Amino acid sequence: MTASQRAWHRWIWLALPPAMLLLLAVSILFRNGAVP
Amino acid sequence: MSIAYRAVQWNPFKKRHDLLLIAGIIGYLSLFILISKAVRGGAHALSDEILMIRALGTCAILLLHIVLAIGPLARIDRRFSPLLYNRRHLGVAAFTLALLHALLAAGYYHGFGVLSPTRSLLISSADYRSLSGFPFEIPGLLALTILFFMAATSHDFWLRNLTPRVWKTLHMAVYFAYFALVAHVALGALQSEPNPVYVALIGFGVLLVAALHLIAGRMETTADRKSCESRDGWIDAGPADAIEHDRAKTVRLPDRRRVAIFREGDHFSAIGDVCAHQGGPLGEGRIVNGCVTCPWHGYQYLARNGQSPPPFTERIPTFRLKLVDGRLWLDPLALPPGTPVQPVRLDRHSSECCHE
Residue B201 in contact with residue B154, Cβ under 8 Å? Predict the structure, then answer.
């Protein structure tokens, strides 16, 4: 990969994990409209 | 590598890999259906169509996780590098399974009404204010569309015509496809499926893939930070003896480009780290039959001139090296791709620089 692609790759993987975990947590905690 | 157009450059490794892949997919689908039938019997039994929809969907997700894990695994441990060689076939297989999952689901859940299956799929459950009513099909369709473009352009024909830089940028969209797929599962299956195993599996998958990427990224950042003292415009690349035979040390330049310094016997040569084929990290490859061999797809170059051996025509930049007191010094000025540079030789008696 070029230097700029490597930089993009790092930023993507710094942002993706918290976004996905947040999405999973919200979807489970508020399943079927339930508020924990 | 090939100088003539071939639909697929089959070789024994690829044939074995693909046979194993097909056997694995068939085995997974069969096991999923058999176990589901055994676990959910009687009044809770699911129809064969639903089981097949779930089996295809989960198999596609599993394959996508494997595809995403191979890259960082190969950077963490070289022994995983051979898996990179045929990764595109895994990606195309994941897309095919996802497409079958989508077609079967659209037909089964939306094929028997007055609306067309596509229209019904897009508008029938659109309650954006509710998690359980959210149209989870939309992120699924987005992921499928991205995977389609990736599968359709996976051939080297597109790689050559789009240029490796554009092609690789396009294929980095797989991360957004992955996010969309996680959203599809979280807003779809996890809303209706009470079994905690599904939550545990997708959570584990996300954590594993994320952890592997973060560990590999951390290792690269640490290695990059070690570089490098500079003197009179030359960069200190460390002791020559520290480089393994037929392997390379990767040095990061101040402008963030990387250079791979290869050792062949007691000779050292420096070339650009980016493979002309698909941007693979040449510094993670090794010398095979006298040629630097890219760990991704086996593209080869002569270390002394950055040229692929005839009849191939790929060229990469070369760099000048010098040896002083057993340490390698690198000129960061890249020479035009394919420029011959005399390798420097380590003289074991005097530890001095010798150009041949």
Answer: no
